[in-house]
Amino acid sequence: MRRTWWTGRSAALLTMAVVSFAACGCGGGDDADSTILNEEVPVADIADLPDVDETRSQMLGLIDQVRAEVSRLVPATEPWSWNREESRSGCTQEGTGSKGVALYFANLVSQHAFTDQEWHVVYPVVQRLARAAGLPDDEAMQDSGGNHDVRFSSDDGRTLIFGSETTSVISATIACRRPAGGTP
Q: How far apart are CA 40 and CA 158, in angstroms?
């Protein structure tokens, strides 16, 4: 049986997200709140952070930097293409009660899966770029031969996702942020 990047833990997370999405009523418009998102909200008050559109622009810049550097180091990763749709969900920041918006980016995908040798070349570069962008924490969701999934995150609720198994993926999430224009 052929394994894909979305098997195992990723499939379980997707199932959990779908069940949580349905349970929280998050499909009911911008005012719906996700209980899962509330666990990952920024430590800082979202009123003091850039709005979701400004943060989205910053994260898209980081994704593009990562793609460019990875492509330079491993030219076989070209071309990259977007799949899935970007999505947003309402959220409430615990402690402040501020209403906001969480953002889940589409995936930027390469059909080239990294060899372990290639991974050891690109991972430190992606880690350096993430840290330079203010994402100092990294957690390996998977890190075994031919199966890598790392999350780079910050206390302000931004996460860069970088992984490779049968394809390579760059994506991101933004936890609760003020909507552009100031009202959820």
A: 9
Other Cβ atoms less than 10 A from the Cβ of 143: the count is: 13
> What would the pLDDT profile of 92-122 be if each residue is shown by its tens digit?
888 888 899 999 999 999 999 999 999 999 9
What is the rounded distance in angstroms from the CA atom of residue 128 to the CA atom of residue 176?
25
Considering the domain boundaries, does residue 111 fall inside one? Answer: yes
Both tokens assigned to 50: 């850039």
The residue count of the chain comes to 184
2 occurs within a structural domain = no
Provide the domain limits for residue 65. 9-177
Question: Is residue 29 scored above 80 in pLDDT?
Answer: no
Is residue 81 classed as helix, strand or coil in its secondary structure? Answer: strand
φ, ψ of residue 161 to 5 degrees: the values are -110, 130
Q: Which H or E run includes 177?
A: strand 168-177
The CATH code of the domain that includes 87 is 3.30.2030
pTM score, whole prediction: 0.76
